[in-house]
Amino acid sequence: MTTSRRPYLIRAMYDWLVDNEFSPHLLVDIAIEGVQVPSGYAQDGKIVLNVSPSAVRALSLENDGISFEARFSGRAMIVWVPVQAVLAIYARENGEGMMLQGLDDGEPPPDGQPPEPPETPDPGDDPSTKGTRRGHLKVVK
Length: 141
Known about the structure:
The chain is mostly beta strands. Helix content is 10%, strand content 29%. It is built from 1 helix and 7 strands. It has a 4-stranded antiparallel beta sheet with strand order 2-1-6-7. A hairpin with a 3-residue loop joins strand 3 and strand 4. The radius of gyration is 17 Å and the shape is globular. The two termini are 26 Å apart. 17% of the residues are buried.
């Protein structure tokens, strides 16, 4: 069994963002079991956390989760986010970063073959998406 790439990618992207003087932010799915974030700050089941060195204390990026101390409305809180709950890590300044949704979590497929990507319809064919704004995250290769 292989380990998940997710914590390694999070640490690498965090280091790159900090080295380039960007403010790293995490997009977190609060519905994942074990997420401990302040209530009242989430929207649509997600929360954005500023994890820049100037915003947090005692940041720990481990293989099983991310923890740090931060202030929310002046109150100190310890935050815990399992790595599976991190949907993206990106720079506040320009949106550069990495989406982690759909990234495997280290479990090999049952038949040993990589899974087939789902068919996605062309967004131009859907009239309900006309005039919608595109996301600000960019794919980093």
